Amino acid sequence: MSLAHLLLRRALQLPERTAVFHGTQPHASHAMWAARSAGVAQRMREAGLQPGDRIVLFMYNHPRYLELLWGAWWAGLVVVPVNAKLHPREVEWIVDNAQARWAFVTADIAAQPLAGLAQQVDIESAEADALLAPVPDARAVPISERAPDDLAWLFYTSGTTGRPKGVMITQRNLMTMGLSYFVDVDAVSPGDAIVYAAPMSHGAGLYAIPHLMAGARHVVPSSGGVDPAELFALGARLGPLSTFAAPTIVKRLVDHAEQAGLGPHDAARSFKTIVYGGAPMYGADIERALRVMGPRFVQIYGQGETPMVATALSRAQLADASHPRHAARIASVGVAQTPVRIRIADGQGRDLPTGEIGEVLVKGDSVMAGYWRNPEATAAAIRDGWLFTGDVGCLDADGFLTLKDRSKDLIISGGSNIYPREVEEVLLTLPGVAEAAVIGAPDAEWGEVVVAFVVAHAGAAITPEALDAHCLAQMARFKRPKRYELVAELPKNNYGKVLKTALRERLTPPRPTA
Ligand code: AMP
Predict the structure, then answer these.
(1) pLDDT attached to residue 162
(2) What residues pair up with 168 in beta bridges, in sequence order?
(3) Which residues, including other chains, have CB under 8 Å from residue 376's CB and lie 6 or more apart?
(4) Which residues contact 379 (CB under 8 A, 6 or more apart)?
(5) I need a surface site. Which of 106, 252, 370, 488 has the fewest CB within 10 A?
(6) 20 CA to centre of ligand 1 in angstroms
(7) 454: closest CA among 497, 477, 493, 423?
(8) 488 pLDDT above the threshold of 80
């Protein structure tokens, strides 16, 4: 069984149905998608690519992403999805590390040839048209047999600490992720549609798998990215859409709805389900999102090493405001998804009692096979089959997981642990604060001190004094920031995650020149 069989099946069962849209324009039926994917698979085989070889996809969201992804799987290849915002030199490092043979790119981000490749194809060129030309009968192109442990997706971590590592994701990992979507996230039927607003090189793109399993439609916005007005309009045209959105994207959708005077009824016409995750969603933000857009949210927690699958907080749990522990639950990331177990452990991997804070460990069929050509990193990350996520959190008696922070983001000041997220949650409750990120700065006396970076809403007059008074009224004195930096925006990566390393660098005094 290969992920490519999912496409062939849909092509046989729902051949004429439009499966892929570019904006509101039909791009391909299931039959056409399969015929193009089979076509590119056949031509890559003829050019000498063998099952297990790696190909890079370095492009903005585009309908051809789906055709190339399934074409690669049809030929038994491993896809290396690359963040479209990486610098070409960083991509060359990945090409070299992955020993990738081919890359499909868009000319806007890869105008020059990348070193180390046998072939680089601009997906909007005549060459790509020829490679993707549909074959007359997709069934005539054999799908390469794949074992469950064979690699399907080699995902490079963002590498905020050191060089990125290639996360080896297998056919089984992705099949598991796809199936658990229906149990833990949302039911999907052929009348539904997913829209790719967040980068397809990340989890948002992987959600193509459950939607193809269910025979649903796939919509790639013509802007190729996140434009809230476009997304609302697309939803109104093509039926309520499901999407994966990082918390920053959710925020932009909610801001847009508020500014345009749209309420839950309008949101329901445009969006069926908004799955959020990938970074902390603050309590104040999800409450506002639910108020403005209604009960159409589901949270997931996962990481590249267990893609999209660790925990989920369901629509019903988010909406159940009458539950006595509702406030704690919506601040959690929910309960273990069906295929995995979660536990909290100390540094040696020993279980900690309920409620105690420690490292989050995950075990199950969604967990990666290891890091590509990096046995030391693999041995450190997976012990006795348990993935050490590097996230810190605690479980309550009902199995709800609350994340504190990445272990490396924890601040230790005067010997006390301070979780930046707690401080951020408080800062965000001050009216006029749009975004907040808290880090530790080295300090001779305390070891580290808390520093807050704050972005104000347009027109809001926020001062360090007002922030400090607010914090003093809401939290233990030792957790209170010693410094407030008012900034126009926070540095973020392509997936909308705040880059705390970049903030830390801003605080590091420049080295004296020799
Ligand atoms: P990545 O491997 O780039 O997907 O990053 C995964 C990391 O993002 C996790 O290890 C968490 O630190 C964070 N993360 C993912 N989902 C959530 C969530 N729902 N809430 C808070 N943090 C999250």
Answers:
(1) 62
(2) 154, 370
(3) none
(4) none
(5) 488
(6) 29
(7) 423
(8) yes
Structure tokens given for 477: 């004195």
Cα 313 to Cα 342: distance, rounded to the nearest angstrom? 14
Alpha helices in 260-384 (DSSP H): 264-270, 283-293, 315-319, 326-330, 375-381
- pLDDT surpasses 70 at 468: yes
Which of 441, 466, 463 has the alpha carbon at shortest distance from 451? 441
DSSP 40: H
Q: Where are the domains of the chain?
A: 410-505
Tokens linked to 426: 């408080």
d(CA 105, CA 121): 6
The whole-angstrom distance between residue 436's C-alpha and the CA centroid of its chain comes to 20
Q: Give the residues surrounding ligand 1 with Cβ less than 6 Å away.
A: 157-158, 277-280, 299, 301-304, 333, 389, 391, 403, 406
Q: Which atom of ligand 1 is nearest to the CA of 281?
A: 20
Per residue in 62-96, pLDDT tens? Answer: 999 999 999 999 999 999 999 888 888 889 999 99
In terms of Cα–Cα distance, which of 499, 470, 474, 498 is closest to 484? 470
The pLDDT assigned to 347 comes to 83
CATH of 410-505 given 3.40.640.10, 3.30.300.30, 1.10.10.10, 3.40.50.720: 3.30.300.30
Q: Which tens digit of pLDDT belongs to each residue from 261-270?
A: 999 999 999 9
Alpha-carbon distance of 455 to 436, in angstroms, equals 6
Element (H, E) at 188: none
End-to-end CA distance of the chain: 61
C-alpha pair distances (Å), 470 with each of 159, 429, 463, 466? 35, 9, 11, 6
Ramachandran quadrant class, 455 (left: phi over 0; alpha: psi -120 to 50; beta: rest)? beta
Residue with the smallest CA separation from ligand 1 atom 5 is: 303
Q: What residue ranges in 171-276 does DSSP mark as E strands? A: 193-195, 217-220, 241-245, 271-276
pTM: 0.89
Taking residues 336-355, report their average pLDDT.
96
Nearest atom in ligand 1 to 495's CA: 3
Residues 362-394 have pLDDT tens digits of 999 999 999 999 999 999 999 999 999 999 999
